Amino acid sequence: MEKICIIGADGFIGYSLYTRLVKKYKMLAIDNLWKRNIVTSYLDIQDPVTRFGKNFILLDVLNFSSLKNTLDEFNPDVIIHLGQQRSAPYSMGTYNDRKFTIENNTIGTLNVLEYIKNKKNIHLIHIGSMGVYGYNNLHILEEGDNANDPGSLYHITKCFDQIYFKFYNKNYNCQITDLHQGIVWGVENGNRLDYDGDHGTVVNRFLIQSINNLPLTLYGDGTQKRAFIHLSDCVECICNFLQPNGYRIINQFTEIYRLQDIANMIDINQTYIPNPRIEKLNNTLEAKNITVKSVLKNPIKLTDINLMQDKLKLPKNRNIDMECKKLWTS
Description:
Layout: E1 3-7, H1 12-21, E2 26-31, H2 34-38, H3 48-52, E3 56-58, H4 64-74, E4 78-81, H5 88-91, H6 95-116, E5 123-127, H7 153-172, E6 175-181, E7 183-185, H8 202-211, E8 216-219, E9 225-230, H9 231-240, E10 247-252, E11 255-258, H10 259-266, E12 270-273, H11 290-295, H12 304-311
Parallel strand pairs: 1-2, 1-4, 2-3, 4-5, 5-6, 6-10, 7-9, 8-12
Antiparallel strand pairs: 9-11
């Protein structure tokens, strides 16, 4: 294995993963820079040419001919597909937001699969979501369980992905690793950090609110349970899953917490706002992560100390708008 392509390399996970892999492999960094154009990162980030140098290609994965030509020229051994609109609140906004999410995520994945279906030597790694299972489960979620209770249009696209992957593996023997991932948290200097209600993930949003002496915003009563993994552990896992192994689904998380419990570790200054999601409060969420446990011997835990270490990396900022603007029932 020599060559790895990351689609969505300019994002939160993509850039951290790139900086790790470029030390060992020949890299191709693909991104359409959509996130840069609509959301301002809390931390300053370099322009993509400075970040990636000659390894960067500005490309939209929806353009199949450009994607094919670029990948043909690079000839990757592994494609890591992160190039999807990954915000659940954004996906539940205006018609155009919803349409963009569906088209970008489902057609983008289709294009990648159409490219690799006749390339028997390419391993596709895809970042999915634990949210495809839903959060009202009454049984322990096994790795490989059916994705059947999505909570947003974003999560619906991840369910589509699972169906795509099973089909392309069965009919074309595509080698695919689908990582059903928990919420990623962590602060990394030089990497983007989203904080608003649409694109900022909950733990990072709490940390930014706290460092700016703003109340932590909890939706509903804060008893919702979610799965979590630290950014560095997420990257470590992906680096350990580079070798193909047929079609496999891995539950990529390290811990499950109630949001209220995490907020209590960070700051007592809290406020509650109506929950835009239609979901049970104090939900049941139990899942197995056997594969991740076999890889991560000392995962970074959601503890007061680790959270404070990440919080202290953050500068205090000026005017920041952290409101979620999407009305999920619109």
